[in-house]
Fold:
Amino acid sequence: MPGAEVAISHLSKSFGSSNIWSDVTMTLPPGEISVLLGPSGTGKSVLLKSIIGLLKPETGSIHIHDTELVTCTANELYEIRKLFGVLFQDGALFGSMDLYDNIAFPLREHTRKGESEIKNIVMEKLELVGLTGAEDKLPGEISGGMKKRAGLARALVLDPEIILVDEPDSGLDPVRTAYLNQLLVDLNTQLDATILVVTHHLGTARSMPDNIGMLFRRNLVMFGPREVLLTSEEPVVQQFLQGRRVGPIGMSEEKDSAQMEAELEELRRQGGDTSDDETFIDDQTMPSEGLGERQAIRRRKDRVMEGLHDLPEKAQTAILETLTEEDRQRYGVSPVESDTQTHAFHRPFLN
Structure:
């Protein structure tokens, strides 16, 4: 069975008089990988903490199975949290404990398992994240990438249905980020857990997820199949994905309309353009050889194809282009319909 669905509806969160975001509505499909993007300070990590119940929103709801997290009792929240595994930005490891004890900690705190069973689980998770042989090391003796993997191993020891990952690329170089992204895809293949990743990293957003969302100006700009955001003509989405100066996002906050218009006019005067003629969808990261197919891929295709005609035209084109001959027969899409789509949507994304 796939991991749990997370249904978020009309969620709002403030700290005092400062509104962080309002009316956030999205559903994390069970067993799929979703990514949440947004400029710094838009409350991505706050949303992550709200989903797990560390912060309480003022309005809205979060449903997981039959539990509503915003209004549930403390005991209900304690039980539902057992469904979660969380990887924080810095790994959140205890500096005085070796990796073995760090990873064993949730098992000792939340279960009655004996040390022999705990050892088997810890060693299994260490192997999953490629840290076999490092169990005796202290966090201060290992690299940032190893700390991330150790934190991920600890997040997995209770066999979570939902894995939340906060800025996994923070402090890592592009190569280590690519390895960690591959690890998350492989874990999803093996565990079929629902995964939500908060990130700024464009390579991660373009290549790893099944679904992408973006927070900006205290609102969720969009959330849906990866092709929707990656082909979007929304100025804030294009600016963020292209990493350019011209657009709604400023250095410290959003720009006003006068500043935006002045920048656009200057760009036109210099003979520049404000948008790309072509939209590119990068190949999605596949599981490592020998792991088989991700079950999420078929479920996602079924779900997306069912609602295909409700998506923007560019997203429809990009989705149709990924269909195999078997897919076309399954969904009743003729080769003519798919083959006539433009082939400008594919190129490898290089860090």
Q: What stands out?
A: The first strand starts at residue 6 and ends at 15.
